[in-house]
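Q: For a teaching session next week I want to show students how multiple molecules come together into a single three-dimensional assembly. I've collected the sequence lines for a complex. Could you give me the predicted structure tokens for the whole thing so I can convert them for display?
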Amino acid sequence: MSTQPPSHTAAADLIDMDHGLISREAFVSEEIFAQELKNLFPRSWLFVGHESQIPEPGDFFVSRMGVDSVILSRDDSGAINVLLNSCRHRGMKVCRYDEGNTMEFTCPYHGWAYSIDGSLVSTPGELYGVPKYVHSYQRKLDKSEWGLISCPQVKNYRGLIFANWDPEAPSFEDYTGDFHFWLDNLADGLDGTEGAAVAFRGVHKWRVKANWKFIAENFLGDMYHAGPSHQSVEVVGIGPGGKGATRSGHESYDYSRWRETSFTELGHGACDFADHDIPYAWASFPEKHFQDYYREAWEKKVEKNTALGRPLGAAAPATYFPNMSLHSQWMPRTILVAHPVGPFETEVWRWYLVDRDAPDFVVDYMRKYVVRYSGPGGLTEQDDLENWDYATDASRGVLAQRYPYNYSMGIGMHEPSARLAGAVESTATPTEENARNFYRRWARLVDNEDWKSLMANVSPVKDEITDGIEV
Amino acid sequence: MDRYERAILRSEIEEFLAYEALLLDTLRLEEWLDLFTDDVVYQVPLSFNVRHDERADATSRLGQDICWIDDTKDVLLMRVEQIRTGVHWAEEPLSRSAHLISNVVLEDIALPTVNVSSRVLMYRNRVASDTDILVGRRSDQLSQDQDGTWRIRKRVVYLDQSVLMQKNLTIPI
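A: Of course. Below is the structure for the complete assembly, covering every listed component.
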């Protein structure tokens, strides 16, 4: 065995955030991709699904964490489990349906059967049925040791289910910090009712030949691209205000008081700020019943949040480190996860949310609006997808790889957030400060820095994260 | 309807669908829009992998679940207008497309309305090597005007993929 240390490229060597430079290798290197799969995704809190997808015992939804297939299921006790979708015997996927209802997963290959029924097993996902157990195993196989691998940390945050494979990883609360305000607006009702959002049935899943990081970067704070990239969708009027109004319904965007928010240690980033109190764009809807619905929801939210001392912003596009992005109450309301496939390919998943108690006319409108905005048929997202594809493609060039990307916009143009712990707000919008802090965090995870060190400078949250849903 | 009338009708409808494809593939998009009624509903549902005995849940429930495309005529107009701006980067430069229509079956004839099932293979190539092939089954409701013009009143395209293996659906299938 060689005593030489393995020589590999450190992610930290690929970024120079003080000068705003990132080597293209970060986006095209197979080696860096392998390090991401090994050290980044298995230690991060990843979005797996929404509780409304698995309302009843036995309900399951097959999801992904990094490149691994997982089963999001609700067992007979009502608890939520995230199980690795791979038979312990020879690895076959035990579930190749997208969703359904069952208390047991039987492998087609050799018949090993795993249960989430508490009357049969003591741990959800435990192995209980093994053909030839007596005849060929002589009962020597310890079934309790060979169950489906269960994710050690699962958090149901207001209906949003996150999971982390690393038992040493910080709690969801510590990892999320004050970014939770963006998650709150995603998961809560438009009027502020906690956890009132539900997911439409039908998760968009599609492939783009792009590195996942271009996608994460887009939503965490790239306000710069919106003008040039989305020129064409702004002409045609896909929003409720039709032509002349913006794609999200507001008459226009006021950038004069707009700030972006970046979590300097945790890596999360948002295109807006917590006190960005832009009301819902009810005026853009032509029909009175729509106007009333959105205006009344906003008024209730203002009343509730004001009483609690909570901010009214935190609604615009954002990315939860590393690869979950969201539009909160900024239309459309949608969650994106950029699942890595290879350095040059990503499988994007999109969930679409609506208030549980929204009237039919709102649900019907939103169902159609979200897919003409987002997804592969979305008039907005199509231009983003094109950018991500060809940015990745051009970065594969030999000469191209010699020249780093420019991430220097807005260096030094930020100040600490008065309201949020561990966050800065830009003094100029757009900025690339959010991206710089994302990549700083990215490099530390990819280079396998330990959690004690990773959390050493993370400030405790200023606001109590109010949610105690037991998984 | 006797065999000969049916054969003529089928031939008319086949040519109509081929003509629609021709307009789309030669970028005569405004003429293409005219082939749809003003009240058209154009949907492309998702496909799900479900148990063999749960086939009713195998595609998005129309009007309830998320689809890939869930358009009315105004949205089709937006798509065409967006392409015509010349700054819709996903279609600038423009793609080359081919819609191959086959397997035409007249499922239900109640003139002036006909329900037609057909197969569509959409080939798309753009820029250099950016190539996609997508296959679906169309379920159309066509209706004929008094002057004999056929128009599409309803279209549902069932794609033969659950994970969509291409980055976008800029061109209608």
